[in-house]
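COMPLEX REQUEST
Ligand: SI3
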Amino acid sequence: MAPVGKKLTGLVAATFTPLTPHGEVNLSVIGQYIDYLVERQGVRKIFVNGTTGESMSFSVKERKLLTDEWCQRGRGKLDEVIVHVGCSSLKDCQELARHAVEAGADGIAVISPSFLKPPNAVALRMFLQEVAAAAPALPFYYYHIPNLTGVHLLASDVVEGIEEIIPSFRGLKFSGSDLLDFGQCVSCNPGHWTHLYGVDEQLLAALAMGADGAVGSTYNYMGSTMNRLLSAFDKGDLEQARDLQFKMQAIILFAIKEGFNLAMNKQIMCELSGIPLGPPRLPLLPCDVSKACAVAQKLRSVLGEQ
Ligand SMILES: CC(=O)N[C@@H]([C@@H](O)[C@H](O)[C@H](O)CO)[C@@H](O)CC(=O)C(=O)O
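STATUS: Structure written out below.
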């Protein structure tokens, strides 16, 4: 069983997956990417092969290569590497979970299968149990993202009694905006679970509800700003925390009006970090670069030169 170690808190960047211009996985920029997160954003925790990382568009073999590279390059630089191992196939999940152990990951997370969907919370818990059992020594997180999986079960129902069947369960990554459900998850926390919120533009509300930290895509390039928001909240300086959240929201709203999606998000990161992350993989289409540049420009004008 995973020991009840230090709780995962603070900001966790959900990484983009670097591709070559021809759409192949590009491991060669991962070292540079990690340095950028640590040195420029003050972010030392990452969530790899998640939604932002387009994991469901990659083969098991590619996901293993990515996991190996993030873990190896992150050693000594990052505090935590959490690997998302969710797939449609239980067997693939288990293979990736076992591989995450070999790679030296600090934890694993799993989304609900989304093509053939679990009929109820019990079925989803059973699925999660089978995956967790393949890597019982690793902290295990349920990744709740109902709008993308189409599985609209309450997370609070999914985690009910979960530690009885998954001793390594350590919390959840909640990428939904139902704060009633989120609050109920927090309220049943036995203390050693962590609740990471995943809607970056609403982080402050989730902190008030008891979030321990956050996982998100925008922490790749707004990590330093959002770290300041976390500090302000911890100090009880709500005025400062709101100011930072409102600025961040203004940037996201501007991006939404430009057609914000994962492809644009990746291109915004390219523009701001200078790291060639390549296009998204099909079925996503590359975004209009001028629109991503406009968002990057907006960000610089709202937050100051990045
Ligand atoms: C639907 C989606 O991609 N949500 C993002 C957010 O970080 C999101 O990009 C952000 O709040 C901007 O809307 C994360 O919750 C996803 C995430 O953490 C992941 O990549 O696994």
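REMARKS: Residues 10-236 form a domain with the TIM Barrel fold (CATH 3.20.20.70). Residues 238-257 form the longest helix (20 residues).
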